[in-house]
Amino acid sequence: MERQYDDSNGGNSFSNHDFMPVDSWRILRIMSEFVESFEDMSQLPERLVAVFGSARTPEDNPNFKAAEKLGNLLVENGYGVITGGGPGIMGGASKGAFDAGGKSVGLNIELPMEQHPNHYQTISLSFRYFFVRKVCFLKYSTGIIVFPGGFGTLDELCEVLTMVQTGKINRIPVILVGKEFWGGLLHWFKTTLVKNKTIAPDDLELFHLVDSAEEAVSYLLACHRFGFHTTVK
To answer: For the chain, what is the domain count?
Structure first.
């Protein structure tokens, strides 16, 4: 077998990043990523809110400023922030939480030539697998706030809605920020998905639409006025 371990620098790295070509061995790497992330995340405060949104949003964009304001408001109200650790909306929410002196958790993902971790993380975890990262987002969140974004953001949003819809997780607040951005999609949900009976009319109640960081936090606090829980049943 070809040598997989490079000890030229003291034996601290694998020379072949794809060193587990056999599925049975790859399971161990997946398991280790779950174990390490669960151990780190379980040490954090319970009141964490995940913030999703585009990595491509520039810092002078109003959505970046709104995400930054959101991070600040969440910390002021006793919450910590979980983001994907990247730039754009993630960077704005992380910066707001960091500047307010709160917890800013970054769940970073290894992407070739794309994601660069932002500098506003008090706790930074790195993931190879998207699905492990998604589990950590949901397992430790008491709320989800979604800003405008692309395919990745839509994937995260639809996964959360699916998990709540099917009863696989406890229901938590899912808040969409930006009426103009989300309006077309939500209209399509109603006029196409509901009309064709691919979702139920009640499924439109699984999320709440707002237009500002202040409205998002106000709705979150209203949902948690009698207590809060994570998604884990």
So the answer is: 1
**Nearest-angstrom CA–CA distance, 228 and 128:** 30
Q: Is 53 left (phi over 0), alpha (psi -120 to 50) or beta?
A: left
Q: Which domain holds residue 164?
A: 18-223
We report the CATH number of the domain holding residue 164 as 3.40.50.450
Q: Is residue 1 part of a domain?
A: no
In a domain, 122, yes or no: yes
Say if 5 falls within a structural domain: no
Contact 74, 102 (CB under 8 A): yes
For the residues 148-166, what does the mean pLDDT come to? 97
Q: Contact 182/209 with Cβ under 8 angstroms?
A: yes
Distance set, CA 148 to CA 86, 117, 195, 214 (Å) = 15, 19, 25, 16
The mean-pLDDT minimum among 77-86, 112-121, 216-225 falls in 112-121
65-107 confidence digits (pLDDT tens): 999 999 999 999 999 999 999 999 999 999 999 999 999 999 9
33 neighbors 110 (Cβ within 8 angstroms): no
Please name which of 41, 104, 30, 113 lies closest in space to residue 67, comparing C-alpha atoms: 104
pTM reported for the whole predicted model: 0.88
